[in-house]
Design a protein that fits this description.
The chain is of the alpha+beta class. About 55% of the residues lie in helices and about 15% in strands. The strands form 2 sheets. Strands 1, 2, 3, 4, 5, 6, 7, 8, 9, 10 and 11 form an 11-stranded mixed sheet that branches. Strands 13-15-20-17-19-18 form a 6-stranded mixed β-barrel. Strand 4 (about 125) and strand 5 form a beta hairpin. Helix 13 (about 455-470) packs across helix 22 (about 750-790) and helix 16 packs across helix 17 (about 605-615). The longest helix has about 40 residues, at about 250-285. The chain is elongated and about 110 Å long.
């Protein structure tokens, strides 16, 4: 049996070149190539972005891995890292106090060697609270780089002397930012940077000082993993390793959303190409019926026929997959040119295995789901067809045809949506749209049968063709309708969704955060901000607490499901209270509290943190706050748009629940450019307040939004090409039958003009109906994408339905007219003789 199949496969490959001239296999190959190109281009690009995000996330530590200890670190850790080709840098930090003429300031003194930082950049500014720029030289002996808050508090400037313990240094730079300084809402001490060789001269690193020694390590990912595994086995008491698994949430959320746009845009291209694959494979199988019937009369069985044509199909799949991967590799450089600079660095090379497997898998799924059913039907062609052309193979079970297509679509959607719930909703929308197209097609065919006789001859014959061949008409309306729907979804709805995304980050979004505002300072800080011309001021309470128990069990005794959850319970959390739900928060489980529940022991958790902790509605969390424990019941879970730049919290309670706890206030404000230089007075008046400038992160998120639009338009080009292939395949599917009908009409005295009018009427009517149903499907799909994927509001424009109807009628009418030119110009006598 296996030898017979191999022989059939070999014969199929030899026949492939001869059968190539029919045109259907070319359409099939082109559709597969285009689908794999679109999906692999986005795959290669997102893989590179993911690697860059991992590297960018390491900037929070200024390294890939940090080894820290209160005591000096043994030399073996650094030596082993250098042996494996990794870069290293050492830092020593300690809190201390510096004094001016009238005031003092707590600082975070950092003694660093010249290799610091290994990841990220040190930012310096020309004056306090001015925009930073990357430093161009390393810190030298005798210099101190000082945070703007220290300069403002102590009334110092560049060039002044700064006394650190027993040593005096010259202030040479205004420190605007360090890659590993915290940007959280905890109490943050301003930094002073000095050369590592200066620390001993200060006399501050003495016995009893709170000194922290750090070894920073960075390099190749595989080498980092190996070094970390070795270092973990060498750790002594008081030593710990730290790495970072997530980037700044604002940038990470924006890039994730941009990748979602790209992924869904590529998926749309694949789904459009799937329609072309189905149409071309159906026509390819139909044109092989006579050949299979002859083979059957010569003794060929179903297995031999299946092996013969399956080898051709798989060969086309491999060739299409290979060409698509090559095209995807080239096309991803276009995405890199558009979006690659968003991370401020050169994107690392992609690890090709993932995108390659995805591309080849897409080609295989398209073939199995959309091209295999016609092939299974073809192998059952009866030998009697040699004598009676009307004899055809029995229909393949509907469950098999639709089951394979549904399975293929499900796999493709799930691979891109990466969310089972979202994938199911998209499948439901797709199924509803398909049912709508089929029902609408049947309805118009019924109406045509009843009303067709009331029109002129060309109209009557054109509309009559829709009713006379219901299967062909339904295939045409469904294929073109699906193609138009996804094209509309990506073209029109795409712009509305991107505009809605941009609208979530207005021009006056908060660009500064003020933390550690004491309760008695809140009113004064508000007045000071008013004087500076600040807008969109929002003040939120901030309470520090440590999660100590879940459902009465100590967290130290629990096995939490994720590393993120374990890190969450090892540090103090920021809690707040909230009366009404913010616009950038959405309840995904449970109910938001009302006024009657204020003061009750309830809590709302951000959904990702709840998943990391393995908790859900009704679970109880115990926090130690200000020396007492408070037990809170989870009332609801929220999703949070971290790229909105509003003040958001993982843990929120109703008003009145934690009002007796010790707290500070945090403010988010928009400060115009001209006001930022006047922040010095506010820092002097309120020395405990820490100001965090997020203008650079805000600008980066805006840049992601703008360039994501360009990138989606780039991917949209693949969808347009796929749409043209669908149109060509739909017209070609009935080419032979139309050639015969045209020849018969002309043989009976019909004029070419009449043939053209009939074709344009048939195709234009089918296109108008397909456009109407496609517009309805696109409106529903756009609403679903806005609500479920991007958490944006969306309202379909009123002109959507008539525009898509007109576009469908025009495109299909023109395509029918162009296709009929080849049919009409051929001799009617020759066509009738061939039949």
């Amino acid at each position: 049996m296996s030898r017979s199949l191999l022989a059939s496969g070999s014969l199929g490959l030899r026949l492939l070149r001869r059968e190539w001239h029919g045109g259907e296999l070319a359409v099939l190959l082109l559709a597969l190539t285009l689908a794999v190109t679109a999906i692999s281009a986005v795959g290669f690009f997102t893989d590179r972005v993911g690697a860059a995000m991992e590297r960018r996330a390491a900037e929070v530590l200024a390294a890939d891995v940090v080894l820290r200890s209160r005591a000096p670190l043994p030399d073996r850790f650094e030596a082993r890292a250098k042996e494996t080709g990794l870069k290293t840098a050492a830092t020593v930090t300690l809190p201390t106090v510096v004094a001016g003429e009238e005031r003092t300031q707590l600082i975070d003194l950092r003694a660093v060697d010249p290799a610091y930082p290994l990841r990220g950049e040190i930012q310096v500014a020309d004056a306090p609270f001015r925009p930073g720029r990357p430093v161009e030289s390393l810190i030298e002996l005798g210099e101190a780089w000082v945070d703007a808050r220290v300069l403002a508090r102590l009334d110092l400037a560049v060039g002044d002397a700064l006394t650190l313990g027993d040593h005096e240094l010259r202030i040479s730079q205004v420190l605007a930012g360090l890659p590993d300084e915290g940007i959280g809402f905890a109490d943050v001490a301003p930094a002073v940077l000095v050369h590592s060789d200066e620390l001993s001269a200060t006399g501050l690193a003495r016995e009893g000082s709170r000194v922290t020694h750090r070894l920073l390590v960075a390099g190749d990912r595989a080498a980092i993993r190996n070094w970390r595994q070795w270092a973990e086995s060498e750790l002594e008491e008081g030593q710990s390793l730290q790495d970072v698994s997530e980037s700044r949430q604002e940038i990470g959320a924006a890039i994730t959303r941009a990748e979602s746009f790209l992924g869904l845009a590529a998926l749309v291209s694949v789904l459009v190409a799937a329609v072309a694959v189905a149409l071309s494979a159906r026509e390819w199988a139909r044109r092989r019926l006579d050949a299979v019937a002859v083979m059957k009369t010569l003794g060929a069985g179903q297995g031999k026929v299946l092996g013969l044509y399956l080898s051709q199909l798989l060969s086309i799949g491999l060739v299409g997959g290979g060409l698509g991967l090559a095209g995807g590799w080239l096309a991803q450089w276009g995405l890199v040119a558009i979006l690659g600079g968003l991370l401020g660095e050169t994107l690392p090379a992609a690890e090709p295995m993932g995108p390659v497997m995805t591309g080849l898998g897409t080609s295989l799924v398209l073939l199995l789901g959309f091209a295999l059913p016609p092939l299974l039907k073809l192998r059952r062609t009866p030998p009697a067809r040699v004598l009676r052309r009307e004899s055809g193979p029995p229909e393949v079970g509907a469950w098999l045809v639709y089951g394979l297509a549904l399975a293929a679509i499900s796999i493709l959607i799930l691979s891109q949506a990466r969310d089972l719930g979202l994938a199911l909703q998209l499948l439901l929308v797709g199924g509803a749209t398909l049912a709508l197209l089929l029902a609408g097609g049947l309805l118009v065919i019924t109406l045509v049968r009843r009303l067709g006789g009331r029109f002129g001859s060309a109209w009557r014959q054109g509309l009559g063709n829709l009713a006379r061949y219901p299967g062909r008409s339904l295939a045409l309306i469904t294929a073109v309708g699906l193609g138009l729907m996804v094209l509309t979804l990506l073209s029109t709805v795409r712009g509305d969704l991107l505009d809605g995304w941009r609208a979530t980050l207005p021009e006056d979004a908060a660009n500064h955060f003020l933390i550690n505002i004491q309760p008695d300072e809140r009113k004064g800080v508000m007045e000071a901000l008013d004087e500076l011309g600040a807008r969109n001021q929002t003040f939120s309470p901030l309470i520090r607490g440590r999660l100590v128990a879940i459902n009465g069990e100590d967290v130290d005794d629990l096995t939490l499901p994720t590393e993120r959850g374990r890190r969450f319970v090892q540090r103090d959390a920021n809690l707040s209270w909230m009366d009404t739900l913010q616009a950038d928060n959405r309840v995904v489980a449970g109910d938001w509290w009302d006024g009657s529940e204020h003061g009750e022991a309830l809590v709302s958790l951000e959904e990702d943190i709840a998943e990391a902790l393995g908790v859900g509605l009704g679970d109880r969390l115990s926090y130690r706050i200000g020396g007492r424990e408070v037990e809170l019941e989870i009332s609801n879970l929220r999703s949070v748009r971290w790229d909105s730049f509003n003040t958001n919290f993982f843990v929120v309670t109703p008003p009145g629940t934690l009002e007796d706890a010790p707290l500070t206030w945090i403010a988010s404000v928009y400060l115009p450019e001209e006001a930022r230089g006047r922040l010095t007075a506010l820092v002097r008046d309120y020395p405990s307040v820490t100001i965090i400038d997020v203008e650079s992160i805000l600008a980066q998120v805006r840049q992601i939004m703008d360039r994501a639009s360009l990138a989606v338009e780039y991917v949209f080009a693949f969808t347009l090409l796929a749409g043209l292939i669908v149109l060509f395949a739909a017209v070609q599917a009935s080419r032979d039958q139309r050639r015969f009908e045209s020849a018969l009409v002309r043989a009976l005295g019909g004029r070419r003009r009449h043939v053209y009018a009939t074709v344009v009427t048939e195709f234009g009517s089918a296109g108008a109906l397909a456009g109407l149903l496609a517009g309805l499907g696109a409106a529903l799909g756009g609403w679903l994408m806005a609500e479920r994927v991007f958490e944006l509001s969306y309202r379909p424009p009123l002109w959507l339905l008539p525009a898509v109807m007109g576009a469908g009628a025009l495109l299909l009418a023109v395509a029918g007219w162009v296709a009929s030119r080849r049919v009409v110009t051929r001799s009617a006598l020759l066509v009738l003789r061939e039949e």
